[in-house]
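Handout, section B. The chain below has 189 residues.
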Amino acid sequence: MGQGAAGGRAVPWAPWWNYSKANPYWGNPSAEIAGYFIQFRELPEAEGWADKLTEFAVGKLCSESSLDEFHELLCYLRLSERLADEQRARIADRLDTMIGRCVTVDPTQWSGYGLHPVQVATIRQSPYYERYKDIIPANLELIVRGQTEEGAWEPAWAWGQYEDVWPIAKEAWKSVLTLENLRLLRDLR
């Protein structure tokens, strides 16, 4: 079992969630977590943290030289949805650069593991919808073709460890992916 703790017990997890001070991608998941502190700032547990974490996250993105990790981009996009206009404006150019570097626009590359246009422009009101509106229909068709006979979507990855519990986690991920894809199909078709 892993070294993480949940209720005092060690729990298995994906290897990419191993903590390392040397990890250059601080924003995954920290930027997204900062956004939840904003969203729930009225709770006593969030008191004082929302502003500190938000300012740190915004400053971190503004000083980053590497803007090419799509998981980190997704976390910063989720943070940006919760930012004040001034803070969102401060990181807009950085997010735009990350999107340009991270989103796979070549349909021949969509079968691999990567960031698709519909993962950035998740609704028609998205600030990134216009950028990808011409290729979104093809991206949605790929999603439809990926649906299993049981009506779900499966992860395109595996942990490569904790093989005894991966099937349970895989089922949970199928639920998450299915909900995400159904929302995309509802909101973008």
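Note. Confidence is low (pLDDT under 50) at residues 1-5. Compare this with the example in section A.
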